[in-house]
Amino acid sequence: MTDLPALVIVFPIFASIVVLLFGLVRQRIGWPIATIASVVQVAMAGSLAIRGFDGDPVRYVVGGFTTPYGIELVIDGLSATMIVLVAVVALGVLGYARTAGPRSNSFYATYLLLVAGLTGMSATGDMFNMYVFLEITGLTAYALVASGKSGRSALAALKYLLVGTFGASLFLLGIGYAYVATGTLNMNDLSGQLAAVGHTSPLVQAAFGLLVVGLFVKIAVFPLHTWQPAAYAGAPDTVSSLISALVSTVSAYALLRIVFSVFTVDFLAANPFARNVLMAGATISIVVGSLLAVAQNEIKQLLAYSSVSQFGLIIGAIAVGNGTALTGAAIHLVGHAIMKGGLFLTSGLIGNSTGARTVEEFEGLGKYLPAGAGSFGIIALAMVGVPPTIGFVGKWYIALGAVEAQSWPLAVIILLSTLLTLAYFARLIERMYFREPATTTSSVETTETTAAIDVATDGTGTAPSMGMWMTVVATAVLSVVLGVVAFEYGQLLEPTIEHLLP
């Protein structure tokens, strides 16, 4: 047994400290150190994933203690997927961040701490440590949102802080209830102890409710989503893409892990109301999130409300709880991270190039910025679920799982969601390719455009670099290529899903 499961969490923290120390003697040293650290992180995550998909889960107890007293890290197909996703997306966004900014050393130190928090949430097999990593993730995300120089960024960060703290507090209360009921916090041990206490025990039911609602806040399930549009729209473009791709994604993974590894399908069978709460949250988020996205004019707000809807699909898959739906949830988590992160990066690049930040300002974009419009269009169609993209495969598995479980209302809602997603993205595609450019959109010197760039790029206002273009095009290509290989990935996940659903 190597120490790789622990190193993949500790290394970004160490790199963050290195950035701060070298930053004392040299400015602008943060980006190269963060990039080198991210490359190493991708290599470690890839090595760990090979072991995670190869048979039984890898279990590592920190400090040589034995479970349930030691802090356990568990690497299976799902957690390995999240660790690789976090590492790859973080590295990809760095390619965009070099020019787009923010460029301070403190920004990149915080960036690496966020990577550590997300990786820890993915790998931990201990409930209290999941809370610790959840807090690290939250605090660093608040700081990154506030890294923009505008007042809008500061206000968004404050709102994110207040709502996020509320969610984390509920999560901690849920852990406390579970500990009082069982006396353990190790997830594997907790699963058996909760069954021994009784899944219909009020204490166990209260723990489940608090944990789920706390994570609903972090995932931004309607009506607990209010922090998300403000945070995504108010943050610098680099931060919007990073947190939209990873923060809610890993929180949704945590919900899946807690429901099936800790409380198990037996709890859902003994408490139909719990499954109904998950299904209600999913249905309302899918419908209302889509309707709110259709009503938006600002691109980043539109994308934020789209996330509310897309994560409703994940919650729906968890509520269905069969192997097909959970495979779809895992695929859609990966797909949404790539697609939504790519859409925020592309909208930021378009904003830098043309000043276009609203739906109307996208008119004629296909003529004067064909590569940017093309990338945005491809990723948007992937988000709708057009074959053979990754967006199609994830929705296909979730819908098929709903049909297998005879959850017909959810199957209908998924179809409705696809039509609503098409509605708000078709509006943009139509304006990009079937309308003439508006005269005001090409000017980057208007007051409104300058203000938009201030929000988008931390005030740098720099023209898009080759790194920004390569990152955007790569996400468009990945949205298609991952769809081709997603079915094979689903087969690789089968041992992990069977372990979750014995």
Query: What profile does the largest beta sheet have?
Result: 2 strands, antiparallel
Weakly predicted, low-confidence segments: 440-460
Percent strand: under 5%
The pLDDT mean sits at: 90
Order of helices and strands: HHEEHHHHHHHHHHHHHHHHH
Ends apart, CA distance between termini: 27 Å
Shape type: globular
User: Which class of secondary structure composition applies to the elements?
Assistant: mainly alpha
Number of helices: 19
Helix content: over 70%
Keywords: Cell membrane, Membrane, Transmembrane, Transmembrane helix
GO molecular function: NADH dehydrogenase (ubiquinone) activity
Subcellular location: Cell membrane
Domain NADH:quinone oxidoreductase/Mrp antiporter transmembrane: 125-421
Short descriptors:
mainly alpha, 502 residues, globular, 2 strands, two-stranded antiparallel sheet
Helix/strand layout:
Elements: H1 4-23, H2 30-52, E1 58-61, E2 72-75, H3 77-100, H4 105-123, H5 127-145, H6 151-182, H7 187-197, H8 202-219, H9 227-234, H10 237-270, H11 272-294, H12 299-320, H13 323-354, H14 365-368, H15 370-384, H16 390-404, H17 408-434, H18 447-457, H19 466-500
Give a brief description.
The chain is mainly alpha-helical and 502 residues long. 78% of the residues lie in helices and 2% in strands.
Can you walk through the features of this model?
It comes from Halocatena salina. With about 500 residues, this protein is mainly α. It is built from 19 helices and two strands. The chain has helices at about 5-25, 30-50, 75-100, 105-125, 125-145, 150-180, 185-195, 200-220, 225-235, 235-270, 270-295, 300-320, 325-355, 365-370, 370-385, 390-405, 410-435, 445-455, 465-500, and strands at about 60, 70-75. A two-stranded antiparallel sheet has the order 1-2. The longest helix is centred in the last third of the chain and has 35 residues, at about 465-500.
